[in-house]
Amino acid sequence: MCGFIGYIHGTEEIDHHETIERMMDTIIHRGPDSGGKHVDEKVSLGFRRLSIIDLSDAANQPLYSEDGSIVLVFNGEIYNFQELRETLIEKGYNFKTRSDSEVLIYSYMEYGEEFVKQLRGMFAFCIWDKNRNQMMLARDGFGIKPLYYTNHTKDNTFIFGSEIKSFLPHPAFIKEMNKDALRPYLTFQYSAMDETFFKGVYKLRPAHYMIIRDGKISKMEKYWDKKYHAKDNTLEYYVEEIRKTVKESVEAHKISDVKVGSFLSGGIDSSYVTALLRPNNSFSVGFKNYEKMFNETDHAKELSDILNIENKRTYVSADEVFEKLPTIQWHMDEPQSNPSSVPLYFLCELASKDVTVVLSGEGADEIFGGYEWYQPSKRMEAYEKIPFGLRKLIASIAKKLPKNKYTNFLVKGGQTIEERFIGEAVVWDEEDALNVLKPAYRSGPSVHSITKPIYSEVPYEDDVTKMQYLDLNLWLPGDILLKADKMSMAHSLELRVPFLDKKVMELAKNIPTQYRVNEKDTKYALRLAALKELPEEWAKRKKLGFPVPIRHWLREEKYYNLVKEAFQSDYAKEFFNTDQLVKYLDDHYHQRANYARYIWTVYVFLVWYKRFFVDMK
């Protein structure tokens, strides 16, 4: 796990050695073990290394081909690098390291750009081909590793890298907030567009690569998709295939020359991974003063004892959370108000004291159908027996009535899945968001304009599959995986996700919907497979998520005053109707309503904005 930064030179004369060094310094947390750079007349590349496989200096990056014409910087792990390496050796290539990185260079030389289809792993990389005067940037199929790019510069410099903050030291980079990003963020709780909160800075989409020639993008191509195509077979067959495939994936993901541990909550996903991995240490987190309300650490400790693993725990206080929030948002690069990012930051800090690599359970819900919203309620199933046209008419009437749980039900009952489901994180109602925003910030895209292109790729699938496909392509890379990468890298910790493996996904694509989600349970087939490794209590436990006591903290005077100060600040008035914000805060504080998520999402944005735009003039 590492980080890289680079740029194709623009027209302005600058000291490229000094510039790339300063850019590298901003991401030293991603790679504290060593740094390296490549500077020629056309490009500058910088790399920070966290040594995981082949700890020798020979594996330091940038890496070069034998003739020096190909230069690589790479972040991630390639889990099938050994078999790829053997094939390339048979074809006559000479390797100077035992690392997985060098495989990328010679695979590119042998197979061209399409070699990316052969890779199994998590990755973002840049290959600079001097002879062809072209650059290739690529990102893994799930978006586990981040990769940003921009030509929003004063002199046509093309900049790219693992974190946006590393763009800031470049003298040609134009730092400007993207006004269109705020509106959808309030509803999604994360940056859901390709363009980020920094104007002109984009995320390379998962499962895509691009070719840059003469400082311009000449090709952008998707090389893999995650569409389901169910194949009939017995439940028993799929349970056994899941068991074998997940076990093999954990084996591949534990390859390392440094210590490996696992994150462990009380849920099935991390428990299954931990049971297969059997590390020396598992790591868990809870909240001080809320151990009985928001705490899965007891379950984690109990399972660790059963597996004969040492469980290390930490408990986080509200004071620690509010103190560290600016640092957390600095590492995020963009505002991200998923409350679970906070405990994850402290969990990574804990784990980094003992190990360099951790395995975690992210991705199982999206792949195998684990979220409760995939499973329709019995009330909704009964209501949907009424003809859709009539339900749609009822919904149009309900929309005009005061909002409550009954009118919300009737509105949802008269909508298609494309209309009512935008992913897990529905925070601000869109109408409320528009009302609280100043006019200049209302022009961003609607949430449905963001989800529509993804839904259009699977028009004939059932509702469960459509929801999973949306989450796999939007929620998973935009929220879950982003915070996993940024919070772990903040502590120089490599986080691996064995459920998000190419082989696991190829199997999951075949599993019929009724084996993923049915009236009995979510993640139905996965839970049955986990019974081979876990006690029944863990395999069948309902998902709790990563609960955080935000609503309680915001009803304490200390934190109420802290948030109120931010809401009434001069910079908040640039974006929001601050009187309305304070009203939401007061109503929550006095327990007239629960606006915790509304408040937290805005507060996180303001913390982020202050860190990047107020404190850094």
TrEMBL record:
EC code: 6.3.5.4
Reactions catalysed according to its record: L-aspartate + L-glutamine + ATP + H2O = L-asparagine + L-glutamate + AMP + diphosphate + H(+)
Pfam families from the UniProt entry: Asn_synthase (PF00733), GATase_7 (PF13537)
GO molecular function annotations of the record: asparagine synthase (glutamine-hydrolyzing) activity
Pathway: Amino-acid biosynthesis; L-asparagine biosynthesis; L-asparagine from L-aspartate (L-Gln route): step 1/1
Superkingdom of the organism of origin: Bacteria
Domain spans labelled Glutamine amidotransferase type-2: 2-215
Keywords, in A-Z order: Amino-acid biosynthesis, Asparagine biosynthesis, ATP-binding, Glutamine amidotransferase, Ligase, Nucleotide-binding
The keyword Electron transport is assigned to this record: no
Enzyme class: ligase
InterPro entries for this protein: Asn_synth_AEB (IPR006426), Asn_synthase (IPR001962), ASN_synthetase/amidase (IPR051786), AsnB_N (IPR033738), GATase_2_dom (IPR017932), Ntn_hydrolases_N (IPR029055), Rossmann-like_a/b/a_fold (IPR014729)
Assigned protein family: Belongs to the asparagine synthetase family.
PANTHER family per UniProt: ASPARAGINE SYNTHETASE, ASPARAGINE SYNTHETASE (GLUTAMINE-HYDROLYZING)
The protein, known as: asparagine synthase (glutamine-hydrolyzing)
Species in which this protein is naturally found: Ureibacillus suwonensis
Gene this protein is translated from: asnB
